[in-house]
Amino acid sequence: MCGKHITALLVSLSLLSGALFAQNSEVPADDSEISVEDAYLQSFENMIIKELADSDGRDNKMVALQYINNALDRGDTSAEMHEALKNLALEGISTVAREGNRVVNNYPDVRARACEALGRLGTEEAKDTLIEVLNSENEPMVATEAIRALGNMGINNNDETTEMIAWIGRKFNIINPTSSMALEILDAFEKLAPTVQDATSMLQVIITIGNNYQYVTPVREKAFQVLESISKKTAKATSR
Hints:
This protein is an all-alpha fold.
């Protein structure tokens, strides 16, 4: 996407927003008229977001994320928001651009921020995308954000979410153990525990974290705290 084209779209959006604001301020309008104007502005903004998200270059994608977060602040959870965030969260993973043998669109910070925004989106489709990210992501920073987002969303149908987080915990415990990710795994498990049907994988990963001295002491201590808390809740649930 040409930089001049994107700049022109941004300017147009700014002018359109100003014009609609001035019109609404000066002339009283009924609810239906305002709704039509807002819908037109939203449609134009969605086009800007798509152009930015699909364009080359990290900076354009970061601007797209700013627009998306502004839309989420207004409560926009449309399919267009999810589609843009899915593309950004998988940038450099499922969509790979190369120059020779070099990947030129590997932007972990973009993917991490997109995962954070997917957590804010909070839909079933957003959960599916976050699980897709975890299934193929090798950057701890991105995986950590995806785990945090899934924990905050709280969606765990048939243990799909907790099983994926447990798989990630086992994977990174071997290839690249990081205390920050381990802590997010523990926090996510603690939040998702009431939704779990089979806690076996979850409890195994918690014990592994607690016994792995590559993690800092507070994280290992947290693991046994979470283990005790979940064990008590599970015991109460099974005794009823």
